[in-house]
Amino acid sequence: PPADHAPHSSAPLPERFPEREPLRSLPGEAHARGHLGYAPLRLATPLTPGDVISLHTSRQRPPGPRPRQGLKSRPGHAPRVGAPSCCPLSQDLDFPPCSLPWLYLYCRPSVPSGALAWPRPCSPPRPTLQSWTIFVRPLRTAKPRPHIDGAENAFKVRLSIRTALGDKAYAWDTNEEYLFKAMVAFSMRKVANREKTEISHVLLCNVTQRVSFWFVVTDPSEKHTLPAVEVQEAIRMNRNRINNAFFLNDQTLEFLKIPSTLIPPTDPPVPIWIIIFGVIFCIVIVAIILLILSGIRQRRRKDKGPSEVDDTEDKCENTITIENGIPCDPLDTKGGHVNDAFMTEDERLTPL
Amino acid sequence: MALAPGPDLLGDGSGDERPKWDNKLQYLLSCVGFAVGLGNIWRFPYLCQTYGGGAFLIPYFIALAFEGIPLFHMELAIGQRLRKGSIGVWTTISPYLGGIGLGCFTVSSLIGIYYNTVLTWVLWYLLNSFQNPLPWSACPPDRNLTGFVEECQRSSSVSYFWYRQTLNVTADINDSGSIQWQLLVCLVASWAIVYLCIIRGIETTGKAIYFTALFPYLVLTIFLIRGLTLPGATEGLTYLFTPKMQILQNPRVWLDAATQIFFSLSLGFGGHIAFSSYNPPRNNCKKDAVTIALVNSMTSLYAAIIVFSVLGFKAANDHGRCLDRNILSLINAFDFPDQSISRDDYAAVLAHLNVTQPERVAGLGLESCHLEDFLDKSASGTGLAFIVFTEAILHMPGAPGWAVLFFGMLFTLGLSSMFGNMEAVITPLLDMGVMPRWVPKEVLTGVACLSCFLASIHFTLHSGNYWLEVFDRYAASLNLVIFAFLEVVGIVYIYGMNRFCDDVAWMTGRRPSLYWRVTWKVVSPLLLLTIFVAYIALLARAPPSYRAWNPQYDQFPTQQENVYPGWVQVTCMLLSFLPVLLVPAVALAQLLVRHRRKKKAALQDMHLKPQDSGAC
């Protein structure tokens, strides 16, 4: 009998992987660089407002200058004055994502073993600042501030270029970011009422080594960010174009809050299995009919010519004469040794 | 026992000479094809895996030597000697024992009904393998095209294809649902193929068997070469074959070994009796029995090697993907560059992160990936073929080709077993002369196939899978053991051991040695009795239950354990015991018939006597 449906699994055995010494390079490096991938800058002088790394404000204010963040450290790169500011951040997992009402706009430092490391400043100091805070881990100790609407309308994007392209992977640099902003602006232009979206309205922030970043689209006045629903719809409609611009696909270029439309399966008009089934079934039916017909023909031929009489001899050989319910043959061999030389079928009928 | 049997049971059924095999090879291949079936592929490797790898071979070969080969030899011998199907053989041995033959006949027809349903499923998968990508490789998207169908996402695409797109199974055996038309169509096709091959009895079966018996071996060899070259295969083989000797202390191992060898050789069906009844009477059935039994066991072993190498590959694959998922979680959470952690570095990186940022790592919810966990996952039966293997095939390059080969092999394996099954049904009918002589054999086989087809339509309902399990567990297992036991006891103690040994000596030229006599007289009946008692004990331990695929279940995709409702339990009882009840029923009927005949004869004598005395 074929079927036995009992799956079986026993308790897992202890891990067999050998313990290796920790890697020298990557984790420590990442740790020193922090989550944002900056090389730590050691400051000889105490902090000045010029080194402000975060902004707290209770007012609606336009986004400040965006920090120049890259995969590799680029020493000596000065922030642009007047550039748009950082987008809302929620990289830190200690820190809840953007949907919270309070938001910190800042470029977070990382703190390797006590030293304060300052990534590039986000924006120039403004006199309207109410306070600025230096963030040291853990970040939860900071006070919540009133929210800026940009938080909810920002989207996180994650790229996996090396997974998609392997050896042909390109490096993610500012030019690629520019292209991305262009694609987003292009997508927004296709939405009604948003035809005036420019590349400068798209703000990127917190580019990491993973290659992931946040972006937000502002309106032409640069005071508000566009509602998430619009951005979502625009991106969804042009997802294919955006993917193709970067040689990626839906899995390697992820918009974390924008679900992608799956390609419906292309069903052929007639499922393949029906075609093959039809072929096999026709062959089988034809073969059955042929066999039946040939059987009928054979029987007709046999009925016409009488069968040979020598069948009876074979019949006697093959049947076991049964008397009183006991087959005869064993009776012959009961008692005494049978000499096989004489025990042949022909003996049963004495030849004429 | 010196009573003449009824006239309709004498002689050959057809009146002409009894059909013969064209050559010995056809007969051997037919018996091998009947014995080697789906269970060799999906039951034996599972048992090997569960019961300590190589250690299972010890009870298996012991059971083969003391139970399998002797019973097999006995079946071939009585068929060849008495040259009739199962019903004819038993009525010849003793009219009171005709019930055994009738019972074997009934069990064979019940099994033939549900076995072809499995072939239907295999055929369905075979037909669906001719496309790239394979239909079970990806989940279908849901209605808004935003994600995948939820049921598929929670389980897996292969499970979804099996349970939903093939079976469309309901959550409860009570809920019958409607007929799955695609399964019905495949059922028609598979019965048509079976009919085509047995349309003229062994005349056509003998030709078809060349392909259906040899093709599986060809495919197994191809899979062996492919399997051994897959990554992870050797680990799978070494892990799964490494003997764990302490498992032999568990009595369940011995029970399962004895059961497996019994079912693997397809004993008790009456199919081997039918096949050997077409042999010339002076044929060395002892050599045949040993050869065929050994071929069957070697095939099981061969298949186990292949299954284990593929399972090893699948486990390595799953393990790699588990690691990849964890690596992706780490990379995404800690913003490491893409592809910066390889699978080899993963353990070290994780250890480092656990030391430095344990709460964050704990919050990620990483799975534990151990290769042994994946290797320990085992499945048997339809689970192995339609879920585990189909998934493994997805990851082989050239997947549709491998799928076609695999399901083609399963189909031919099942088909050759169906030949034996249907032969066990048709030969007794022919011998008994159920149809008048002018009705051609094609009509008889056609009627048999048609009635079995109509009965098996029930298995294409949505709850068909559950019913198949019911039939498999209750109609097949218990009855076959009982009938094999009755066969041995009937031959040894009622037909007579000496008479039987003389028959064997006449056929093979040598009297059976002590080994045969001891096993026939003592060991095999004892083993069969033990199996039977153990089966009853296991069945009685808990109310019979089944595993249902219920998407609404909170622990889905684990299957829900349901108890059979009352009427299904009654059906199980009927299936288990009705065929066995035929034995005493027929014996009683014969007793009554003879009693009446004796009374009539005595009455006639009484009428004659006064005339004689009055004549002088």
UniProtKB/TrEMBL annotation, chain A:
The chain crosses the membrane at residues 270-293. It is found in: Cell membrane. Its main location: membrane. Residues 151-352 form the Collectrin-like domain. It comes from the Eukaryota. It holds the Pfam family Collectrin. Keywords: Cell membrane, Glycoprotein, Membrane, Phosphoprotein, Signal, Transmembrane, Transmembrane helix. Residues 1-31, 52-80 are annotated as: Disordered. One of its GO terms (cellular component) is plasma membrane. It is a single-pass type I membrane protein. InterPro entries: Collectrin, Collectrin_dom. GO terms for biological process: positive regulation of amino acid transport. PANTHER family: COLLECTRIN. This is Collectrin, amino acid transport regulator. The gene is CLTRN.
TrEMBL record, chain B:
InterPro entries: Na/ntran_symport, Neutral_aa_SLC6, SNS_sf. Na(+) binds at G33, A35, V36, N40, S264, N296, L413, S417. One of its GO terms (molecular function) is neutral L-amino acid:sodium:chloride symporter activity. It is found in: Membrane. GO terms for cellular component: brush border membrane; plasma membrane. GO terms for biological process: amino acid transport; renal amino acid absorption; sodium ion transmembrane transport. The keyword Hydrolase does not apply. The chain crosses the membrane at residues 51-72, 93-115, 179-198, 210-233, 253-278, 290-311, 402-422, 443-462, 474-497, 518-540, 567-593. Keywords: Glycoprotein, Membrane, Metal-binding, Sodium, Symport, Transmembrane, Transmembrane helix, Transport. Its main location: membrane. PROSITE patterns: NA_NEUROTRAN_SYMP_1, NA_NEUROTRAN_SYMP_3. The keyword Cell division does not apply. Belongs to the sodium:neurotransmitter symporter (SNF) (TC 2.A.22) family. This is Transporter. It comes from Equus caballus. The gene is SLC6A18.
